[in-house]
Amino acid sequence: TNLFGTSNADFPPGDPGMYQLDVTLRRGQNLAARDRGGTSDPYVKFKLGGKEVFRSKTVHKNLNPVWEEKACILIDNPREPLYIKVFDYDFGLQDDFIGSAFLDLTSLELNRQTDVTLSLKDPHYPDHDLGSIFLSVLLAPGEQREATMQMRKSWKRSSKVTFNYDFLSCRTGNFWHRIYCPSKYVLINLVSVSSNQNHGTFQTQSLRLSDLHRKTQLWRGIVSVTLIEGRELKAMDANGLSDPYVKFRLGHQKYKSKIVPKTLNPQWREQFDFHLYEERGGIIDITVWDKDAGKKDDFIGRCQVDLSTLSKEQTHKLEMPLEEGEGCLVLLVTLTASAAVTISDLSINSLEDQKEREEILKRYSPMMMFHNISDVGFLQVKVIRAEALMAADVTGKDSFSKSDPFCVVELNNDRLLTHTVYRNLNPEWNKIFTFNIKDIHSVLEVTVYDEDRDRSADFLGKVAIPLLSIQNGEQKAYVLKNKQLTGPTKGVIYLEIDVIFNAVKASIRTLMPKEQKYIEEEDRLSKQLLLRNFIRMKHCIMALVTAIYYISSCFDWDSPPRSLAAFLLFLFVVWNFELYMIPLALLLLLAWNYFLIVSGKDNRQHDTVVEDMLEDEEEEDDRDDKDSEKKGFMNRLYAIQEVCVTVQNILDEIASFGERIKNTFNWTVPFLSWLAIVALSVFTVILYFIPLRYIVLVWGINKFTKKIRNPYAIDNNELLDFLSRVPSDVQVMQYHELKQDPTHSPSKRKKNNPA
Predict the structure, then answer these.
(1) What was the pLDDT predicted at 732?
(2) Half-sphere exposure of 530 (CA within 13 A, CB side)
């Protein structure tokens, strides 16, 4: 480490209290090359007390990177040095160590900014010159109250949901701010409350702290980004072409576009929505990659969109040249204000306030069917309490079992958290969450976790509730399920949910592309998942084969009455066939199945094979979690794994497609079945009264003039968009509500139905 003079800062010999360290990571110089091309993809980590308190962005293919990122770190012991480590990022592999250095905080002068140059060293090779890191640092005294005020729970959802309670991240201007709150001070605060006050006051304290976190969960607007195309991108493959895709990042929100194979001028036509948390905007990081099967993807270029420079409530067409590469991206960016979500206590209820309730009902009345099509409805979720939760923590001499539960409420990409109720297996949250509904076919997910201060939160249970299955104004006890939603786990959660929506808007939105979720996890090879998808596809194929055998048996006159009826029907249909009879036949099938359901003769059977496959998959996931830190043989055979994952996903898509068609006619989701009846009725009338040639002519004119009328229109298939809302058999199984244990009888409370 480079020490730079002596300090005149007078640190107390005892507990020095809180200090704030502002560190600006400027740049690196002459860093060591760790890649075969003679370059590196460096990023920097700051560690304090063995914990990572800051991680910079990755600068690709550069030995003299410029970061200009700022970290605001709250520390309780300035005699503990700041550990700085530099790594080379390697996609899919273990990152290479470049070098490290220590910053002695006692050598800093209080309230004075100092420029620091640190020489990187490797303890195993102390004589090697690994480059230098340039910093600007400012150490100033801080207040413990400020540390408490800045503490927040932020969470990142990945393949295993991880919660970190020590960091606060936001972006201002061109700087990243990350605040580190030592767990020691959080612990002291909680211990003092629990030892000097009763349990009720302790819970009040946790509620008060949670109110301070509330603002960090709510967003102030929505950024809609439409990725149109790329122009003259850099060729990365031997054939002079590339297989480009794009990654977007705004804070913790991430999206990934589809891959367009073998082109330097890709056309994407994809739309992504981000939540905007800062009034001054933020910066969207955009990187372009070339997909390479079996090896690391090639970096093509990067660009950034500074949202603070864009005016709101209008669409901006941007042509963004790629840095560190060639070509440009064409984007459409729209910033809109939003009051889509709120968090409040039970005493503040929008639907119980007569004036607010009338405004909400008016907003989604039939008269407003063509106003703001994307605003489909209103959702209010009351998270009341949970009972008999799983004990995740064992402490004390008597092995007292407890949990520190909190609740995460999710609707698509909207995620909100309750406060934590400490040391309680029967927590009461009494919180109200409201969301704007963009798709009535969305699924509300409520997950309960156990807070762990020093590691990722423990999963306690989860429920998934399709919005169309909700009964308004009913307080209901939901049995918590496991991670895969295939079976029960310990505990129940009491919710009261209200949904108000405009049916016309919901129907129109059904025929539009479905909202994508943030990038959560990479596809991985699973033996049970591959087998499950194969069996599902086999069921679809066997249903088709059975139908073919049935038709063949009519030809063979295995049953003379049936064959005679089929022969007469064949003669009648062929002699009188018109195109409108196709949707009419589908209408009759829907009507027949509806009659069976209403008459109590429904012959739909629960798919136990799918349930068994899901349970086996869950067991495999548990084994994978235990071995997640070990890199085995399969990780080294990346190419084979990718092929198997592709086959696995194709099987899933084929099986899901067949199951969705079946579930449309089986009235699995009545709203969609009724929508299909309306659409088929319209098609039948159109085909009956309008000659086919006119229909084909209108269709062709629409197709040929679509890009002329709207050059940036996003291509979509209304039929496939409709089917994407119909649940597959696996999803039906996951959304199936479990019966509650008789020992937990829910108290149901009926209210006026606001819909």
Answers:
(1) 86
(2) 13
Nearest to 469 by CA among 431, 495, 489: 495
Question: Could you please report the per-residue DSSP string of 319-368?
Answer: EEEPBTSS-EEEEEEEEEE----EEEETT--TTTSHHHHHHHHHHTSGGG
Percent of residues, the chain, with pLDDT higher than 70: 73
Q: Residue 172 has which token pair?
A: 């201002």
With 0-12 / 13-18 / 19 or more C-beta atoms within 10 angstroms meaning exposed / middle / buried, residue 558 is exposed
Alpha-carbon separation of residue 207 from 163, 199, 229, 341, 342 (angstroms): 19, 12, 48, 19, 16
Q: How far apart are CA 465 and CA 449, in angstroms?
A: 18
Q: What is the pTM of this model?
A: 0.50
Task: Output the six-digit token pair for 568.
Answer: 């007469």
pLDDT digits (tens, 9 = 90+) for 206-232: 333 344 344 445 566 778 888 989 999
Cβ neighbours around 187 below 10 Å, total: 11
Tell me how far CA of residue 531 lies from CA of 172, 214, 538, 631, 652, in angstroms.
Answer: 48, 44, 10, 23, 10
CA 12 to chain centre: 47
Give yes or no for residue 528 having a pLDDT over 80: no
Distance from C-alpha of 601 to C-alpha of 667, rounded to nearest angstrom: 13
The predicted pLDDT at position 279 comes to 59
Q: What is the pLDDT of residues 643-700, one digit of tens each?
A: 677 777 788 888 888 888 888 888 988 999 999 999 999 988 888 888 877 887 787 7
CB 66 within 8 A of CB 26: yes
The string of DSSP letters for 79-103 reads: TSPEEEEEEE--TTSPPEEEEEEEE
Contacts of 515 (CB under 8 A, 6+ apart): 273, 412, 413, 438, 439
> What number of residues does the chain have?
755
- What are the two backbone dihedrals, phi and then psi, of residue 29, each rounded to the nearest 5 degrees? -140, 130
Strand locations in 165-294 (E) = 167-172, 175-180, 221-231, 244-250, 253-256, 267-276, 283-290
430: left (phi over 0), alpha (psi -120 to 50) or beta: left
pLDDT at 517 over 70: no
Count of C-beta atoms within a 10 Å radius of residue 65: 25
Across the range 427-439, mean pLDDT stands at 89
3-class state of residue 614 by DSSP = helix
Q: How confident is the model over 298-323, as pLDDT tens digits? A: 899 999 998 888 887 677 889 999 98
